[in-house]
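HUMAN: I'm a chemist; might I ask for a sequence paired with its structure tokens?

ASSISTANT:
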Amino acid sequence: MSELDAVATLDLERAARRGYPEAVYCSGKTPEQVRLIAAAVRDAAQVTLFTRADASHAAAVLAELPDALHDETARLLAWPPAPPEPAGGLVVVVSAGTSDLPVAREALLTARYLGREAELVVDVGVAGLHRILNRLELLRQARVIVVAAGMDGALPGVVAGLVAAPVVALPTSVGYGAAFEGVAALLTMLNACAPGVGVVNIDNGYGAGHLAAQIAAP
């Protein structure tokens, strides 16, 4: 048994089977485990995203894939570093507050590396409703909109009431004590009265970006 076999079984046929590349969730893995996976990715010339990578994980990936893109805010690495040529519809990712940006950027980069044009709108939460209204022209060009929000989690329902596109609601763990690390936002989004809202798990930027990329596929 090789060192890698004791750590992981890479899904090298995922892109051919599903049309989307492999993703490696780094949290909970040791840097050495991540390094072994990165080496195997390099040897197989496999397009791969590394998500939830802290500084030690990133260093391990870059040791084997030195040209990989590393976005520290999103805690994401992508290899090869250049995203594919975009096809399909536009994905717009909306971050309610600057504190939601890490999760929003994870969704944004996931959508881009899965082959979609993606744009980011930052700090347009419901505390100043005019801010999202000022971005309606862009929002109404989107095939799908990802809305990342913590605290009260109200923004996805607001956006869904203004556009024709489906909204992927992305609750974040941002907020004071009664936000319960994102549970309050999650429940608000699940109870949204505006139709056309689907909800992913708390802080799951990768899942939101992946779903948005599939919705916006050619």
Summary: The radius of gyration is 18 Å. Residues 35 and 63 are 7 Å apart (CA to CA). DSSP finds nine helices and nine strands in the chain. The longest helix spans residues 31-44.
